[in-house]
Amino acid sequence: MEQLSKEDLLELVKYLGSDADLDRSLQQWPEELRLLYELLVTDDAEADAFAQQLLQSQELDQCISQVMAEISVPGESSLRVVAALGRAADELDGDSLVQPKLAQVHGNSPVDMRRRQSLQIVVVMAVVIFGMTLWPFIVSDQSSDVGFAQLQQSIEPWVAELDQEEAWQEVGGEIGLLVETLQQYLPLGVKARHTTVGNGQLVVDFSSPRNGKVVVFVLNQNASAVSEPQFEVRQISGPFGVASVRVGTLQVLVVTDESMKRITDFLPG
Amino acid sequence: MISIEAMLETPERTGDSPADSGSESVNAPLIGVQRRLIVTEYVKRFHDDVYRFAYRLTGDGDWSEDIVQATFLKAFERLGQLKDSNKAKSWLLAIARTTFLGDLRKRRAWVFTDAELDGTQLPNPDLDSSIDSARLQNALLEMPEQFRIVVVMHYLQQESYREIAEQLEIPMGTVMSRLSRAKKMLKNKLTALAKQNDQ
Q1: Chain-chain contact of A11 with B180 (C-beta, under 8 angstroms)
Q2: Which residue range forms the structural domain that includes residue A31?
Q3: Which residue among A9, A38, A190, B161 has its CA within the 20 to 30 Å range from the CA of A24?
Q4: Distance from chain centroid for Cα B68
Q5: What gap in Å lies between CA A105 and CA B23, rounded to an integer?
Q6: How far apart are CA A235 and CA A218, in angstroms?
Q7: Fold of B26-108
Q8: What is the 3-state secondary structure (H, E, C) of A147-190?
Q9: C-alpha neighbours within 13 Å on the C-beta side of residue A3
Q10: What's the confidence (pLDDT) of residue B54?
Q11: Do residues A136 and A148 share a domain?
């Protein structure tokens, strides 16, 4: 605990409103203060010095208080404040009740405007950057039931599942038409078979000694129609080359292990 | 026998509100126009007090005007927080103080040092004759803000220890200590400035 000094005592005594006649006012002090005084002021000389200090300090305080208030106030300042208040009030609907505790009205100060604008710019930039990054995926898979991110994770298990698949079927019927469409646009070869993997995904296998392993996952047969066929090689980490293809209302994913041909060899041109 | 606690209250403390204002709460739903009228009235009554307070803290006329304007605009927005219209002046000064501190934080990092206390000069007995407003302002501006604030609250607003403690939300003992050190600091600086002036 900090020890009280004579100056602290002086401040306390001043607060009490004591005058320099300490002998007289001492009796009116609180007991704690009297004890403190007796501890710090031990003889008559110190008492006189303390009384003198008290007087000087009181005069100085009075002087500082007076000078402290000596500030000329700009005459138009209050008018400017009133005008600013008027503008702030105009932003409120004068006819509506305002519950100040519940609904604070925030002034439309230039600083707030700048903050809002900065925030808007940051948000717009974030959306643009995010949008640009995802644009290829969004555009090409917009009509797909299966997201591209999901495909990235699914290809390896699908192909692994296909390796175990024994229920391959000969192409025919509706699937025959689908295969013909694919063969019309893609140099996949004539040999084809199909199956459905565990998640219901239709898969057509065009694997052959010449092609190596190549399978086509049919993502959507009723996607929004495209007027021109679209081919796009996807960069997918892993052992597979992948291309997404859209033809008419058909959306497929061509996957190869590139043991014999690169993925681009299955695309026209 | 009175206690030290009671002694620390300033008996001649002036009220915030003029005699004609009652102690009615303004914490009622108010139409915007009403709020504007109330705050405009506060501008008429307390503008100069807020300006002087701001000026003693900043030492800069333009900055003080900014603080004054921000204070009354905040008062307009937050009028519902004022529980007792008798305390309007204290409330406005508290807004001005926090506005000043907020401005200060934006302008520079908070500076708090006890280095100022190292001066061993004794107050000059004739100091009061050499004090003027500009010199006092210079001395104030050389003080760390925490000390400057309590000195201005004490000398300009005549606030008691307890009132300062309540407004700054610090213990009364801290106010006593801080004010005592601040006064010492102020007097040392005034003495130094007076000596500089004499040379």
Answers
A1: yes
A2: 1-92
A3: B161
A4: 13
A5: 25
A6: 19
A7: Rna Polymerase Sigma Factor; Chain: A (1.10.1740)
A8: CHHHHHHHHHHHHHHHHHCCCCEECCHHHHHHHHHHHHHCCCCC
A9: 4
A10: 94
A11: no
Tell me the mean pLDDT in the region A106-124.
71
The reply to whether residue A89 touches residue B32, judged by beta carbons under 8 angstroms, is yes
pLDDT at A17 over 90: no
Residues A115 and A189 in one domain: no
pLDDT at position B11, please?
38
Partner-chain contact B27 A107, CB within 8 Å = no
Provide the pLDDT for residue B18.
Answer: 40
The Cα of B89 is separated from the nearest Cα of chain A by a number of Å equal to 15
Q: Tell whether A149 and A260 lie within a shared domain.
A: yes
State the average pLDDT over residues A95-122: 60
What gap in Å lies between CA A64 and CA B155, rounded to an integer?
7
Determine the residue among B72, B81, B179, B188 to mutate to test chain A binding: the one whose Cβ has the most chain A Cβ atoms within 10 Å. Answer: B72
CA distances from A92 to A9, A86, B32 (A): 54, 10, 6
Q: Which amino acid is at A103?
A: A
Tokens (6 digits) for B94: 């508290």
Rounded CA gap, A146 and A128, in Å?
24
What stretches in chain B show pLDDT beneath 70? 1-31, 107-130, 198-199
Decide if pLDDT at A22 tops 50.
Answer: yes
